[in-house]
Amino acid sequence: MKRESNKNLTRLVKILSDGQYHDGTGIGRVLNMTRSAVWKLIKKLQAYGLNIDSIKGKGYSLQEPLILLEVETIKRHLKDKVDIYLFESVDSTNDYLKNGHHQNLVKICLAEQQTAGKGRLNRYWYSPFAKNIYLSCVFHFAKDVSSLAGLSLVTSLAILKTIQAEGIKEGLFVKWPNDVFYKNKKLAGSLIEIQAESHGHSVAIIGIGVNVNMLNIPEKNISQDWTSLQKILGQYIDRNELCARLINHLFFYLREFDQHGFSPFMDDWMKVDCLANKTITLKTINTKIKGKVTGIDPQGHLLLRLTNGQLKSFSSGDTSIIK
Ligand code: BTN
Q: What distance in angstroms lies between residue 118's CA and the mean position of ligand 1's atoms?
């Protein structure tokens, strides 16, 4: 089930974001709604997992910093004119775009929450309300799908560049093909799905998840070590500007990739590649291969020196370093 973003919810959060107590009647006056309509919105926010205290005679108070996403704020910081679809909740931003028809060359879908967020290899992508970035984008390439091998690498580099600009100068790495790590913890990932192709033209859905303000989560929801920008920087991050910067970087990188392929990105990749010269296992759908990473080729394939000495390139798979 999908829920369009709700302006009243955003306005309510703005009122509550000072951390003070506000009574239902006063909020209702500002938002031009009844006290019981305010109460329903409060219940909704609580159902999304937000910590809102309520004291009889005093009102409601938000116990954590919170800024919701707003399309107009994001657009104000964008370099290109882009259609943005923002949902309060959606199954998966990738699936939303996959099920639509895309005449427009670029389209973005954002959500505050995903109920069925998808990671690579059919994994689940934990997507709690208003904590992180869940962003998907439709992009048309003037090339065959066979030339898109480097697309997840380019996407990882665009994410890394955006995060660096937040002030994290060291400790950021990419892990072939789609992970962004801070030290040895996952910070962001991307999921590319090809939607259509014809000779010399392809359409990709590029889905990006960045852990932004997530601090504590029920343990079972993420199976690997993870971190978030707030954990690293020690402060709450406004996701609106971050989203805009991510979109700006992404489009710049995607256009470059569309015109010149992956080669112009190879140097950048090698500087932040955490697999370089490491012995790893590469899992594909039906095999598990061990080898030493010697680098990547100009298409973005992973180059592995196998234990029998043979050098082989791989276009997909899941990598893990052998300690
Ligand atoms: C991974 O690291 O396995 C890929 C994670 C991709 C998650 C993003 S969140 C936005 C978009 N919608 C989804 O359902 N998945 C991607």
A: 5
128 lines ligand 1 (CB under 6 A): no
| Ligand 1 center to 150 CA (angstroms) | 17
Calculate how far, in angstroms, residue 299's C-alpha sits from the geometric centre of ligand 1. Answer: 23
From first to last of the 323 residues of the chain, give the pLDDT tens digit: 788 888 999 999 999 999 999 999 999 999 999 999 999 999 999 999 999 999 999 999 999 999 999 999 999 999 999 999 999 999 999 999 998 766 666 799 999 999 999 999 889 999 999 999 999 999 999 999 999 999 999 999 999 999 999 999 899 999 999 999 999 999 999 999 998 778 889 999 999 999 999 998 877 777 789 999 999 999 999 999 999 999 999 999 999 999 999 999 999 999 999 999 999 999 987 889 999 999 999 999 999 999 999 999 999 899 999 98
With beta carbons less than 8 A apart as the criterion, state whether 20 and 34 touch: no
Are the CB atoms for 273 and 313 separated by under 8 Å?
A: no
Q: What is the value of pTM for the model shown?
A: 0.95
Ligand 1 touching residue 178 (CB < 6 A): yes
Would you say the CB of residue 190 lies under 6 angstroms from ligand 1? yes
